[in-house]
């Protein structure tokens, strides 16, 4: 499959231009890799247009809500199937994620990280090598972490969950074990939800368990038991 990429320097220049409110010719600077049929972005564009229009209808106010995680979760779930259908060599290429960030997801990045973007700093969110910060990539990994359990919508169920997804799922091995990640989400969605400090302590215990146990082999019931036992 042929797919577009951008290098770091080119992406950084586009970010500066976008922050200034201009519309650069991103596709003209993209470098295409691979062979065969080119990616058809039409389905993704249609999905993102609907979501963007929803945000526009609310005024696209950066202060619209103090918790932007629910909408990020919705966007993540909505675009997951398109991204997950792409070949692994595409998904493993940071240049592809850079391209996506500035060509398709800029409106969301500008809203999601209004503070840093307003100060002229958005490179962190468009660098395809940083999977917990690059916004399209972290959204994909957020859903990927739970999708194989059969409930990808779990990626959009939590509120005020920035640290949960970035630090306790995506950044660690738990993000590679769908049953475990799904049960962790259920814990945080329940009345037993852990606040910040207890959550960090709990996550440390869970991460230490990986040292001696291959939790990635656990089925749904085993994962449920682990999450429950560690909570006691």
3D structure, described in words:
There is one protein chain. The protein has helices spanning 8-19, 26-29, 42-57, 69-84, 88-91, 94-103, 106-112, 114-118, 135-147, 162-170, 178-189, 196-212, 220-231, and strands at residues 3-5, 31-33. With 232 residues, the protein is an all-alpha fold. The protein has a two-stranded antiparallel sheet.
What keyword list fits this structure?
two-stranded antiparallel ribbon; globular; mainly alpha; 2 domains
Task: Give a brief rundown of this model.
This protein has 232 residues and is mainly alpha-helical. Helices cover 59% and strands 3% of the residues. α4 (69-84) packs across α9 (135-147).
Q: How is the biggest beta sheet arranged?
A: 2 strands, antiparallel
Low-confidence stretches: none
Spatial strand sequence of the major β-sheet: 1-2
Please give the number of β-strands. 2
Provide a count of the helices.
13
Class by SSE composition = mainly alpha
What form results from the Cα inertia axes? globular
- Gap from first CA to last CA: 49 Å
How many domains, as an integer? 2
Would you list the SSEs in sequence order as H and E? EHHEHHHHHHHHHHH
Percent strand: under 5%
Average pLDDT, rounded to a whole number, is: 91
| Percent in helix | 55-70%
Radius of gyration: 18 Å
